[in-house]
């Protein structure tokens, strides 16, 4: 009789072990609906390290197709699937277009006791050979005017599709512009994208966070605290990218928000209610130092790089301080830049001269190391050297 409690506790222990084992078996053999096995791919090399995950080039074992795997960082997730990745997936499903990156599927690794029962998730994209930051950092890559027109036309086509789908990209920058080996430009990285809310008459307008867009490509309204912004924020970035096709490095590289506004004022002229109607209503106007008596010098400062008058005019209109005056993607496509000789051309010639892939990440670690990294997205501080004390030292 005395052994009975002992056998009861043994029995309980065995039952508990069985339950634990069943649970492990369940987790290990669990198949998420719509999610495929990452073991279908062989990883080849790392091509990107973003704020939200790593990107690898990989090959499908069955078909041999080359893809890009974007690993979803789960470290900060206490539970569940990260909202940023869910947003990105939802946006990409809505945005099927030749000039927008193509999401093929979502994959996960198996949950095992080795990874404490936590799967790793990956977004699988059609692979593109280059990103624009990588191409621009390589001085041997020379763009002809007609090719720049071809690139910008594709960029505005992609942006038009995004904006017509009532989506804001919110992270326009050269590293998020991909180019396939066929020379097709694809806007990528929808990690910060979000839908535009419909405005209901009589209801207050929707507010969005203004901590978006990499600092160097961030428009003045965001820097001044605007939270009811629209598609014009992406067109400012398009203007910065367009100028960069000639200057080869980002045109305004501020290391703080204050400094970015100073650089913008030095290029686009002083910010005040005369140059930008109702700017005084923005939350940070009057709270942040805005240098006065500076005239607009976009054309003057860029004309030693950009020798085409129509190109200069288009950049000038994309870098309008007042978002209401900034050209949108539709109007940009109608600009005479795209309708005068030399007409836009495809990138076949250029692509045939490139021997290997060029990415910002590999350039930053290889022979084409960029002088000024450009990672200041969201709350991450810009990784740039200390200010040299001169007001023009960090501009193209
Ligand atoms: N489909 C693709 N083909 C080739 N390279 C890609 C592809 N998608 C992304 N990359 C590379 O990986 C980099 C990072 O990808 P992505 O911008 O989507 O990630 P992220 O984590 O949001 O980056 P960040 O926060 O730096 O903007 C890109 O700049 C590009 O160089
Ligand atoms: Mg990116």
Automatic annotation (TrEMBL):
CDD domains per the UniProt record, alphabetical: STKc_CDK9 (cd07865)
Record: residues binding ATP: 70
Presence of the UniProt keyword Membrane in the record: no
Domain of life where this protein originates: Eukaryota
Keyword Iron-sulfur: no
Occurrences of domain Protein kinase (ranges): 41-338
Protein's cellular compartments: Nucleus
Catalyses which reaction(s): L-threonyl-[protein] + ATP = O-phospho-L-threonyl-[protein] + ADP + H(+); L-seryl-[protein] + ATP = O-phospho-L-seryl-[protein] + ADP + H(+)
Keywords tagged on the record: ATP-binding, Kinase, Nucleotide-binding, Nucleus, Serine/threonine-protein kinase, Transferase
A UniProt-annotated Pfam family: Pkinase
GO cellular component: nucleus
InterPro entries named in the record: CDK (IPR050108), Kinase-like_dom_sf (IPR011009), Prot_kinase_dom (IPR000719), Protein_kinase_ATP_BS (IPR017441), Ser/Thr_kinase_AS (IPR008271)
SMART domains: S_TKc
Family: Belongs to the protein kinase superfamily. CMGC Ser/Thr protein kinase family. CDC2/CDKX subfamily.
Protein's UniProt name: Protein kinase domain-containing protein
Source organism: Plectus sambesii
């Amino acid at each position: 009789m005395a052994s009975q409690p002992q056998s009861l506790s043994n029995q309980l222990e065995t039952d508990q072990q069985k339950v634990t084992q069943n649970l492990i078996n369940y987790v290990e053999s669990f198949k998420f609906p719509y999610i495929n096995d990452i073991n279908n791919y062989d990883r080849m090399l790392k091509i990107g390290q973003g704020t939200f995950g790593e990107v690898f080039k990989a090959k499908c074992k069955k078909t041999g197709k080359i893809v890009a795997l974007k690993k979803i960082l789960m470290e900060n997730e206490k539970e569940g699937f990260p909202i940023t990745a869910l947003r990105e997936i939802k946006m990409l499903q809505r945005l099927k277009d030749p000039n927008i990156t193509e999401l093929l599927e979502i994959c996960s690794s198996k949950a095992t006791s080795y990874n404490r029962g936590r799967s790793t998730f990956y977004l699988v994209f059609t692979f593109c050979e280059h990103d624009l930051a990588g191409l621009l950092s390589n001085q041997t890559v020379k763009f002809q005017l007609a090719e720049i027109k071809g690139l910008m036309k594709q960029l505005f086509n992609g942006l038009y599709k995004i904006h017509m789908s009532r989506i804001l990209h919110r992270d326009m920058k050269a590293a998020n512009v991909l180019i396939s080996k066929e020379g097709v430009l694809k806007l990528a990285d929808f990690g910060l994208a979000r839908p535009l809310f419909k405005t209901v008459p009589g209801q207050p307008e929707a507010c969005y966070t203004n901590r978006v867009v990499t600092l160097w490509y961030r428009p003045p309204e965001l820097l001044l605290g605007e939270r009811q912004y629209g598609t014009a924020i992406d067109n400012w970035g398009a203007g910065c990218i367009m100028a960069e096709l000639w200057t080869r490095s980002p045109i305004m590289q501020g290391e703080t928000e204050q400094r970015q506004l100073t650089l913008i004022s030095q290029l686009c002229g002083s910010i005040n209610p005369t140059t930008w109607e109702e700017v005084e209503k923005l939350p940070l106007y009057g709270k942040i130092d805005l240098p006065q008596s500076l005239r607009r010098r976009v054309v003057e400062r860029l004309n030693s790089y950009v020798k085409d008058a129509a190109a200069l005019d288009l950049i000038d209109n994309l870098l309008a301080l007042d978002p209401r005056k900034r050209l949108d993607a539709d109007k940009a496509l109608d600009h005479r830049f795209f309708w005068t000789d030399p007409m836009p051309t495809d990138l076949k010639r250029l692509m045939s001269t490139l021997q290997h892939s060029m990415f910002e990440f590999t350039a930053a670690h290889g022979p084409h190391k960029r002088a000024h990294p450009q990672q200041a997205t969201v709350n991450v501080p810009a990784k740039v050297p200390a200010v040299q004390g001169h007001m023009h030292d960090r501009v193209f």
